[in-house]
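Reading group handout, session on sequence-to-structure problems. Before we discuss, look at one worked example. The prompt was deliberately terse, the way you'd type it at a terminal:

> structure SDR family NAD(P)-dependent oxidoreductase

The input record follows.
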Amino acid sequence: MSSLLPLAVVTGAGSGIGYALTQDLLTRGVEVVAVDRDTSRLDERVQAYEFDVRDGAAMQELAESLSSRPVHYLFANAGVGVSGDVLSSPEQAWQWAWDVNVLSVIRTLRLWWPQLVAGRGKAVVTVSAAALQSYPGAGPYRATKAALLSALEGLYYQALGDGVGVHALCPGLVRTDITEVNRYAEVAHATPAEPNPFESFMRTAMREAEPADAFARRVLDGLDSGAPFYWFTHPETMDWTEARHRAVVGAGTPFTDFGALA
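And the output record:
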């Protein structure tokens, strides 16, 4: 591909939101570097790299191999939907969620930051509306997404003088296979044996969720028209988020039921 094309880096590109972003970026004439543990579905036009984002050496080697290329878009999208309650979730579940959802994202941003500065690019990190909501049954997922959002708030201030846009993408329900954790070997040691109410809700809700390809188009259109830092893409999540914050300010209690306002 021509080096004159704008360059995008996408992690978690093999499925779900990452795959849909990769496909749509290609239609917009963007060169894509894609990272995933399974890249078998990706278009042959993609520069696909098949490894785990937790592999810091591989991530560093890739970033260094493209150190001369300005990056226009970085989509730090890789994540795992580790469910489970706070106390019943094994330590391996917490570590898995932390390593993928937080540490690997920060590493990705750090390694590609010089190229983002060179390209005056945009860093879009897939967080979740869950980062600012409260519900039972998803302790590792919610906690790590909340931690990630806090880290991005710190990065926002650091980025002000670098010319890089930072966007905390906080979607609601998007139809992906994030709930299909059985595809990961880690699930044998990191998840409870029985599904909880949150998992059951998600499996049902996913059937009616927004398709990933439609969501990806909205995200890329939003970037072109000027996306915010706190990027809540699904208005239906806002009432619940605002109610949770009213409970915090009013010294109340967390919600007592999934989907019910405090």
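Points for discussion. First: The longest strand covers residues 31-36. Second: Helices lie at 16-27, 56-65, 91-119, 139-159, 187-190, 197-205, 212-225, 238-249.
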